[in-house]
Each structure stands twice: as C-alpha cells, then as structure tokens.
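Q: I'm building a small set of examples for a reading group on sequence design. Run inverse folding on the following structure and report the sequence directly after it, with nothing in between.
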C-alpha cells in the first residue's frame, strides 16, 4: 500500500506543478526503480503519461526493454495507451488506486478510445486505412532474416 500511496502523492504533486493528476512507480525487489508523473502539457508530448514516463525511466535505469521482474503501481487505472505500453514492458503485476470512473468524473474519460478500438478499422472516427504498396512486408522479412535481432 505504501507504493500506491506514493503514486497518489506524486499525482497531487504533479497537479501542483501544473501537470496532470497521475503518478506511477516501478518497483523491483521491494525498491523503487523509477517514478513518473504526467508530463503531457509541460513536455508537449501526448504520450508522456505517468506510466509511460516511469516505464521509460525504469528501462533506462535497468538497461533493458522489459520489466518482467518488476511491479508497476499507478495512481489511476492505466488508460488504453498505457496498458498497451505495460503489456509490451511485461511487468509481473500492475496495481492501481483510483478506477477509470473516478478519472472520467474528473474529465479524463477514455471510454471513447475503448469503444473506437472495438470498432472495425473502417468504421472508426479517426480515418484509418490500410494502403497497398509492393514493399509491404519486406520489413518483416528483414526482421526474420536478421540473426542479430533482439526479440521482444
């Protein structure tokens, strides 16, 4: 519970510094490896959510692209983007304090993203189309034939 309490403290501090109300911590073997707060507005980066900031810092600190022996704590239920990043980072577990309904009540409603992702590509509000080019697929051929690749 102390790590979750710390994420909430970080989130409140972030608000005081002009950021969003979100904090996250990556923990390994009971020790904090990295922290993150929402940096969207001050960095001009819409992907700078607390969990993504913490994942990036933890990976740098640990010298790896996966956090399989870590736990991630977040002040709020991770949004769809952050959940995607968490799945790619592969932590052992993810814990959060406030649920998505609390965030939505404060103006951070991600339900439209959940709804959009469930729709067929051609039916999404953001125009998204696959275009055919002859080169398509060659990047995966290059990947599969690269003996020096680092799988993830």
């Amino acid at each position: 519970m102390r790590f979750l309490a710390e994420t909430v403290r970080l989130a409140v501090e972030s608000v005081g510094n002009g950021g969003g109300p979100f904090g996250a911590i990556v923990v390994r073997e009971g020790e904090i490896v990295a922290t993150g707060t929402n940096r969207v507005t001050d960095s001009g980066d819409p992907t700078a959510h607390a969990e993504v900031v913490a994942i990036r810092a933890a990976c740098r600190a640990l010298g790896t692209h996966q956090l399989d022996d870590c736990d991630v704590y977040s002040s709020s239920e991770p949004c769809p983007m952050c959940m995607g990043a968490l799945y790619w980072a592969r932590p052992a577990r993810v814990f959060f304090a406030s649920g998505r309904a609390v965030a939505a009540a404060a103006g951070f409603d991600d339900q439209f993203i959940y709804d959009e992702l469930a729709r067929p590509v051609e039916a999404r509000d953001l125009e998204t189309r696959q275009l055919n080019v002859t080169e398509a697929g060659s990047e995966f051929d290059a990947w599969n034939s690269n003996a020096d690749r680092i799988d993830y």
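Residues 117 and 124 are 8 Å apart (CA to CA).
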